[in-house]
Structure formats: structure tokens, C-alpha cells
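Example 479.
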Amino acid sequence: MVLGICVRYNFKFIIGFFIVLYAIITLLFFNFYKELAIKDTKQEAISMLNTINAIRSYVDEIQRPIINDLKNTHFKENFFDSRILSSSSIAQYIYDKQLLEKELKYEYKLVATNPLNPIHQANEFETEILNKFREGKIKDYFSLIKEKNQSYFFIAMPIGKNKKSCLQCHGNPKDAPRGMIEQYGDTSGFYEKIDDLRAMIYLKIAISSILFYHIEEFITGGLAMFFVFIIFIILIYIIYKKDMRLQEKKENLFVHQNRLAVMGGMIGNISHQWKQPLTQLSYIFINLELLSERNKLTNDKLVFKIKEANDQIFFMTNTINDFKNFFSPKKVMNEHKIEDILKQSKRLLKASLDRYNLEFVIDIKEDFIFYGCKNELVQVFINIINNAKDAFISKDIDKRVIHAQTYVEDGKDIITIKNNAGSIDEKVIGKIFEPYFSTKDLSVATGIGLYICKVIIESNKGTIDVKNLDEGVVFTIKF
Ligand code: HEC
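Predicted structure in complex with heme C:
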């Protein structure tokens, strides 16, 4: 059973370990997926920002010069319409259109420190990044930011540097188209210098929306892992069950071996217990013979002698029945009074108790019913008593008393078996129920006996433990 307990605790431990492992793996998995999702988003964001920059370049380098050329022939000199002349407006328009198609909620923004349109005014955080771009330290900026308890993925890129052509509208306001000045005023967005960086574009995406966008991957991945985990648990359970069955078989074998050993030791007891009644019987017969020879065998005397003989035979029958019952290999589950079981154990051991001068006191404070295999419990008592007997002999103690008591406490049925055969070393007392454990106090022959007691008691849903007393030890069995 010690091994059994080991396996049982191990199983709990393994399950616990697996749950922790599963939690860690799940966490790592989700983190990994999150990283992957963000990387994916980053890639897409970069490509979107590149597109926006490309549109800006297209307007700056191709569209606007063409329109400027056309101005002289087809438009009025002060013609201005941001829808075809401002790369910022066009990019924003195209971006908005593109965004409608997307499931992910991107927040696109163009920010400048000196904007023409105040909606492009950069805040502190944005100015900081913009300055990094200006210093030329980085080509793009990427970070996770928190705003109002929401996490965002933030990716920024600088726009193209100021060219000479930009100064037409962002240089001196006097040079700018009048239509533009009328629309935007002349206070901000001017006096830019060639090769300076005016602004940056960025995308901000809520992490939750990225995760939600990838929810299917998360669910499939999570489910797959869950099933793998369940399969693992089932496999471990099957292995554990097999192991338990093997363990049980082993234990049954041990119990059986011990029974055989106990029985072997008791064969001598049978003949010993029959010796006296057999002698008595033989006396009775001699007596009868003498009486009959002397013709003194009256009817009364005959009846009396027959009764005497019958008593002896009855005693012998009882003895042999006790042994026969105990030797029976059948495991019969039944209700038994604990007193009967203790008394039967005492009867079976009578010869041995007499021989070694052991006093076995049965003190029934409260009787209770034991449901189970009677023989098994008898085996337990015999093992405990044999164990005490060995201790008495090895310590050469004169007055040898084994005291069994039964009572009920806190709803538990309790049997204590006390002896005065000296105490067991505290260092090893916890180990005496282990198989093949033996000290000088306990003989090698009974090394397995206490282990068997534990196996039997635990298989009957009870507990057994041992404690040192002043003069000996006490075994306590609880059901
Ligand atoms: C024909 C005039 C014109 C030219 C040339 C021009 N822009 Fe603009 N730009 C504008 C207008 C108008 C806006 C405001 C658009 C709006 O309302 O969003 C603007 C806005 C911007 C903005 C957004 C910040 C802000 O000021 O509101 C940036 C950045 C910008 N322009 C950069 C440039 C660069 C770089 C060049 C040269 C490659 C350039 N622009 C050339 C007219 C011009």
C-alpha cells in the first residue's frame, strides 16, 4: 500500500503539474499568437503607410506639376482645390476609401508641428517621435501604447522631406495661391525650409481589434491544444489505472503470502489445542473400560461419561471450525461484531499465547459492527499480536500483556491494541508499515506482517497507525 499511496499522490501531482503546464503553454501560445498577429498587422501597416507616402509623392511629383502647367492655359492663376492639389487631402481621401474595405479598425493620422490645417497639429508624444525622425535616428517607429486603459499598436513613418516645390504653398504666404490662403489663413503652415521634415504619418490600431480580427486562429489553436491536453490526461489516467491494478494484484499476493505464513505458524497450534481434549477423551475411554470390566458401569455413569466426551468433542470441533474458517480462501463480506472477531483471534492464538505466557485482554467498551471479510481482520489482529510476541521475546520481558480496547469516538469505530513490549525508535516508527521493514525490535519473519495490516485496513477504508507509549506501543485502527 505504501507503493500504492506513492502512485496515488503521484497521479495527483502529475495532474497538477499538467494543469500548470497547460496554463503556461496556453499563455505562451496566446502570447506567441498575439506577437504573430501584431507582426502581421505591422507588416500591413507598413505597407499601408508606404502606399500613402507613394500617393503623396505621386501628387507632389506628377499630378501637381501637370496642374500647375495647365494653370497658365486652362485655370485662373489663383486656382486652388485641395482635392486635386494637396497630397495630404488626397492621401486621406484614398486612405478613408481603403479603410472601408478593412475589418481591422485602423486610425490613420498625418501630424505636423507647423500645420496648415489645425487638425494636423502634433501633440507632445507625436512631436517627440517626429523629432526622432528629424534627427535621422530611425526610419520607422513602432510601439505599443496605452490610452484610456486600451492598448494600441502604434506605427509611424516620416513623409518625404520638403522640396523646393513645397515652398510654393508652405513657404512665404505671399507665394501661395490666394484660394488656399482664403481657406486656411496665413498664420500657420508656412516658412518651411527645403530638406526639413514637415510631418509624419502614423497608424494606431487597438490591440483588442487585432486579437479579435484573429479570433478564429486563437480559438482553433486553443481548442487543438485543449484536445491534446485532454488526450494526455486520459493517457496518464489509463497508465495510472493499469498501475493501480498491478499494485492491487501485488498487494493481494502479499496478503495471501502472509496468510499462508500465518497459517503455517498455526498448524502447530491446532495439534497443541487438541492435545488436551484428546488426552481427556482417552481418560474417559480408559475410565469406561475399567468400570465395565468391574461391572460397575451403571446407566447413569455411562450417560455422564458420554456427556463428558461430547463436551471435549464439542470443544475440538469448535477449535477446528475456527481454524477451518480462518483458512478458508473465500473472501466473504459480511457483518460481524468486533468482539467476535477479537475473540476468534484469541482462540486461534490460544496455544501460542499460553506457550509464550502472553496475556491477551479484550476490553469491549463499545461494541460495533465491522462490515467486511472477517478473516482479513483476524489476520490483522494475529499479525499485530505476533509482532508483540516477537518483541516480548527479543526484549525478554516477564509480564507480557496485550490489551485490546474497542470504542466509538467522533462517529469513528476505534480499536486500540496496546502492549508493554518496549517502544520503537522514534526515527523508524513511521516506517514500520513499509514492506520488509524490520528493526531489531521486530523480527525479520514478521517484516511483512504490519505492512499487510495496513493493506488490509486501508482496503476496508480504515486507517492504522502506531504510537509509542511509556512501556510499549499502541496500534490504533479506525473505521
Ligand atoms: C499647391 C499647394 C501645396 C503644395 C505645393 C504643397 N502643399 Fe502641402 N498642403 C497644402 C494644403 C492646402 C494643405 C492642407 C490640406 C488639408 O486641409 O488637409 C497641405 C497640408 C500639408 C501637410 C499636412 C500638415 C498641414 O500643414 O496641415 C503636409 C505634411 C504637407 N502639406 C506637406 C507638403 C510637402 C512636403 C510638400 C512638397 C512636397 C507640399 N506639402 C506641397 C498645399 C500644398
